[in-house]
Amino acid sequence: EMTGEDKAIRSLVFNARPKLIQSSIEIKHVGANGPKVCGAPPPLVGLTATHLGGLALAVPLWLASNNRSLPPAKDGPDRPRAVVIGAGGCTIPAVLAKAGCDITAIEPHADVYDAARQYFGADDANIKLIIGYGEQYLSENDSKDLNKKFDLLLIDAEDGKSAPPQTMREESFWTGAVAPHLASNAVVAVNVIANQDERFELTRIVDKALQAHDVWCCDVPGIANVSD
User: Fold this and answer.
1) Is 173 exposed, middle or buried (0-12, 13-18, 19+ CB in 10 A)?
2) pLDDT digits (tens, 9 = 90+) for 53-85
3) Distance (Å) of CA 199 to CA 35, 85, 169
4) I need a surface site. Which of 21, 24, 62, 212 has the fewest CB within 10 A?
5) Which residues of 109-122 are buried (b: 16+ CB within 10 A; e: fewer)?
6) Of 74-88, 171-185, 205-219, the least confident
7) Pick from 43, 134, 39, 38: which is nearest to 84 by CA?
8) Distance separating alpha carbons of residues 101 and 113, to the nearest angstrom
9) pLDDT band, very low/low/confident/very high, at 225 (cuts 50, 70, 90)
């Protein structure tokens, strides 16, 4: 898509969900090389809009819950430690990096990982991009080390049928892989593609596993124009 400034929007779309924009960035022109660093936040309206930008609202929620009015300095010792499971084109990790987070993004698919680095600026030094599975990354984290607990956990993963994948809808995932690794006042945001009963069940499981946290289930606004 061309913008009014003779620039273009590059988007990442999966064949399984062609109506759902996974990541979008602005580039100089059609066919331009990928940027050296991740670009601006994703557009939330228009043909290339991605509603997943809403996951980045986890940052102001974390700031509010920790009585912070401004994002921390990018090189400061008190930066929130953020993890994104399902990096895609790294649009969301880019937003978190620009907000001052110490960000690690995990992407299980090698072709998406390569596309993110080559075309979407995911070689940005402010983002640690790892190829692998989120469940394994969480299980290998040292939950006993307070400095390695997560302040922000964003889950934007699917298995081709549902989001999050079935393995991340199990109570054992939330009690064993998530809860032990969260810092106090941590914020968790999950992209959910499911029917009403499935959403209710996932909310029940998360609420039970994270009893020290409040749990909300938010609908995608109509302006996002998401039909699949």
Assistant:
1) buried
2) 677 778 888 888 888 766 666 666 678 899 999
3) 37, 19, 10
4) 212
5) eeebbebbbebbbb
6) 74-88
7) 134
8) 21
9) low
